[in-house]
Amino acid sequence: MLEPGWQSWAEAVFRRRSRRRFVPNPVAPEALARLESVCRGFRPFGRARAVLVREAPPELFRGIVGAYGRVKGAPHCLVMIGPKGAAAEVGYVGEAAVLETTALGLGSCWVGGLFDPDRARALTDLTPGERVLAVSPVGWTTESETWTERTMAAVAQSHRRRPLNVIASGCGAWPAWARRGAELARLAPSAMNRQPWRFAFEDGAVTLIQDSPRDTYRIPKRLDCGIAMLHFELGARQAGATGRWQILPPPRVGFFRQA
Ligand SMILES: Cc1cc2nc3c(=O)[nH]c(=O)nc-3n(C[C@H](O)[C@H](O)[C@H](O)COP(=O)(O)O)c2cc1C
Predict the structure, then answer these.
(1) 191: CA distance to ligand 1 center in Å?
(2) Mind listing the pLDDT tens digit for each residue in 18-72?
(3) Do 171 and 88 have their domain in common?
(4) What percent of the chain has pLDDT over 70?
(5) pTM above 0.85?
(6) 67 lines ligand 1 (CB under 6 A)
């Protein structure tokens, strides 16, 4: 049984950044084995899963649209999979794999739009009803972002985040665990950095709501929200609160109560 890396994932939240340029240094087999064990072993919602693909075809990633650049040189990739209606769950488990990648010192980048869906589907054995929601490159990167990466991030304002009181209104009066949860959720990645998560605290529990029902860029906002759910839980745990997310139907996304 896999022991989830709660602590190392929480630390990785502060180091993770989307990386799109990879260098050909080989990744140690032990690191790939660890990432694979997280993908296989961390499936709290059952129907959502991430799969590590050892050989990523370069054509998997597509070219530039606006400020978004193409991913280049990634030797491996993650494929984020789930049935219809499970985007939040896919975001949650996919981000665990992404944060494990960061914890291992490797680069990653959620790619929900600019990938070839036929190629992605062919990489894994999908069961009937399963679909690929996103992929991520995995591999070594240069220590700091390349000039191209910095330019792309600056144009897309990728490193900006909404103020805490926008995503968690009134959080100054929340218990420390809920506030810390919102702080880590604030740093979550999202498609085009749209940050569609809003947290509300009532009767000792937290509800996550999507900012608006309309999806943009043909990428479900619930996928971003699922990523933020994992970040929230990591922050809550850091402040001593364990609990579980219960998935809710739209427009709400999830409900978190301390165990
Ligand atoms: C669900 C999702 C889909 C994304 N899709 C793409 C994509 O298709 N192409 C891309 O270059 N980046 C993509 N990104 C990366 C975001 O642009 C990036 O996370 C955001 O700008 C914040 O920057 P950061 O990850 O460096 O913090 C995606 C991120 C998420 C969470």
Answers:
(1) 5
(2) 999 999 999 999 999 999 999 999 999 989 999 999 999 988 998 665 445 689 8
(3) no
(4) 97
(5) yes
(6) no
CA of 197 to the centre of ligand 1 (A): 15
Q: Is any ligand 1 atom within 6 A of the Cβ of residue 227? A: yes
| 178 and 110 within one domain | no
Whether 123 and 213 share a structural domain? no
Task: List the residue whose alpha carbon is closest to atom 9 of ligand 1.
Answer: 111
Per residue in 72-102, pLDDT (tens digit) is 899 999 999 999 999 999 999 999 999 999 9
Our answer on whether the CB atom of 98 is closer than 6 Å to any ligand 1 atom is no
Residues 32 and 137 grouped into a single domain? yes
- The sign of the torsion formed by the CA atoms of 14, 70, 224, 56 equals negative
Mean pLDDT in residue range 186-195: 96
Can you list the alpha helix ranges (DSSP code H) found in 104-241? 117-122, 147-156, 164-167, 176-186, 221-238
Q: Is residue 10 lining ligand 1, measured as CB closer than 6 Å?
A: no
| CA 19 / ligand 1 centre spacing (Å) | 9
Beta-bridge partner residues of 206: 201, 256
Q: Is the pLDDT of residue 2 over 80?
A: no
Other C-beta atoms within 10 Å of 58: how many?
12
Query: Does 88 contact ligand 1 (Cβ within 6 A)?
Result: no
The alpha carbon dihedral of 42, 44, 45, 47 has a sign of positive
In a domain, 38, yes or no: yes
Structural domain for 183, as ranges: 164-258
Write the residue with the smallest CA distance to atom 31 of ligand 1: 190
Name the domain boundary from 118, 153, 188.
153
pLDDT for residue 120: 95
- How many domains does one find in the chain? 2
Last residue of a domain, one of 115, 133, 153: 153
Residue 186: closest CA among 169, 204, 205, 203: 169
Q: Which CATH number is 183's domain given?
A: 3.40.109.30
Q: What residue owns the CA closest to ligand 1's atom 1?
A: 191
